[in-house]
Design brief:
The chain is an all-alpha fold and 98 residues long. The protein contains 4 helices and no strands.
Amino acid sequence: MISPFVIVVYLGRFPKSILKKVCWIIVWSLVYQAVETIAYYNQSITHHYGWSLTWSFIFNLITFSILPIHQWKPWVAWLLAALSVTLLFIIFDPPIPK
């Protein structure tokens, strides 16, 4: 989960050029991946239903890509987020509490 202060720093310094935007998204995804990897190997977190560190990195890339879209067109970001969540439910088929 992205903390509010991280969003401010991430979006406040979001670059203008396409190449720098891509690099910015990858850098922040790698930072979050490093934190999760440490937590995973410390056994502070566990993965279930087929989730892995690879899926976490993909999730980070998607999340950090959607954040600047939300500033531009919130409804597009919400649509992309809903699509992402739907795909995750289809791929991982987690049990839904009754």
